[in-house]
Structure formats: structure tokens, C-alpha cells
Design a protein that fits this description.
Helices cover 22% and strands 38% of the residues. It is an alpha+beta fold. It is globular, with a radius of gyration of 14 Å. It starts with a strand and ends with a strand.
């Protein structure tokens, strides 16, 4: 499958976030705190000019880890019809490359429990026990030293 990854705006992410991560919730639930900070980046995967996957990268630490230059992945989603075609891996690789250029030492995020295998395949590790994000579902804290 041919696709390209481009920087997009936070609002551009909403249709994919909504149809994959916020099904049945108001479109406003697709806005995340920090989405519009100058330090936050959003990337979209396009197939035939259609946005089919998104990922957002927030420059923020996590108190679970020693103070490091770290980034948080949020809102990673690929439309159902385009999943299992390498788009998710390409989006994660895109933000990993960006973090490497920024001399970051850690990428972390809260992964849905159903996505743990996907991230472990990409070298991420889980930390702690499963926890619930209200209205979203069970998650694990995941991370990778870079």
C-alpha cells in the first residue's frame, strides 16, 4: 500500500481519533489537553490523499521515570480498513525519528490493553499494572529508551 506521512494540525486528527478512539462520544472528546501547544506535533498518514492514520507527540515527562528529555505519544489511530498494513508502525517510527533528532531519551504513553502486542513488537516495554482510564478503558503505561 502506498501512503505518505505529513505534519497536520490537531483538528485534522479529529475524524480518525473519533472513529477509532472515541466511538460514540462527542467530537469534542477528540481534543486533548496540550494539543495546540507549539511543542506538540501531529502527523497523519495519507493514502490517495485520504487521511487514514494519525499520531500526536507531546513534549512532556512522566513522574514514573527519572527526569529525562521525554515525549508522550497520544491519539495513535489507524482507520479500521487500513489496519495491519504497516501504517501504525510507520507513524510510530516517524515520531521516534523526530524524538531522536531532538536528542530525547524516552518515549512513553498509555496504551490500550488491546494494543500491547503491537507496541511490544516495536520494542516498547510496559511498566506497572493495568489501569482504567475513565470512559476509555483499560491501559498500560509503556515506554522505550531511545
Amino acid at each position: 500500500m502506498k501512503y505518505c506521512i505529513l505534519k497536520i494540525t490537531s483538528i485534522d486528527t479529529y475524524p480518525v481519533r473519533h472513529s477509532v478512539l472515541r466511538v460514540g462520544k462527542p467530537i469534542g472528546s477528540c481534543h486533548f489537553d496540550g494539543d495546540d501547544l507549539p511543542s506538540t506535533l501531529h502527523f497523519g498518514a495519507f493514502s490517495n490523499e485520504q487521511l487514514v492514520g494519525v499520531i500526536s507527540l507531546f513534549k512532556i515527562g512522566n513522574t514514573t521515570f527519572l527526569k529525562q528529555k521525554s515525549f508522550q505519544i497520544r491519539g495513535m489511530a489507524v482507520l479500521t480498513a487500513y489496519q495491519k498494513q504497516g501504517i501504525g508502525e510507520a507513524l510510530v517510527s516517524e515520531v521516534e525519528n523526530f524524538c531522536f533528532t531532538q536528542k530525547a531519551t524516552l518515549i512513553w504513553f498509555n496504551a490500550r490493553s488491546s494494543a500491547i502486542g503491537f507496541y511490544k513488537k516495536m520494542g516498547y516495554e510496559s511498566r506497572g499494572i493495568e489501569f482504567e482510564i475513565k470512559g476509555v478503558g483499560p491501559h498500560y503505561l509503556m515506554y522505550k529508551q531511545i
